[in-house]
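[job 4471] stage=fold_predict status=RUNNING
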Amino acid sequence: MARITPPKYVKHIMITLQARGHAVCLVGGCVRDMILGVQPQDWDLCTSALPEQVMEIFPNSRPTGLKHGTVTVTENAKSVEV
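[job 4471] inference complete, writing structure tokens
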């Protein structure tokens, strides 16, 4: 299986959340794609941070599914659902 790592903008979000004391994991289709050896086009994260905390940490984020705890974080013109 090919080794696929998240792009820099995804790593930045993950490292930033971890630096604030939050757990963070890759989830969803990107994990499936990585297992299949396919380069993911869509990246999703799960974190212990509450949506309000994510929006505070990342000012360029927007609530896209607060009912389900989802915030979209934009980094370098790329979006990640957290």
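[job 4471] summary: Residues 12 and 75 are 8 Å apart (CA to CA).
[job 4471] exit 0
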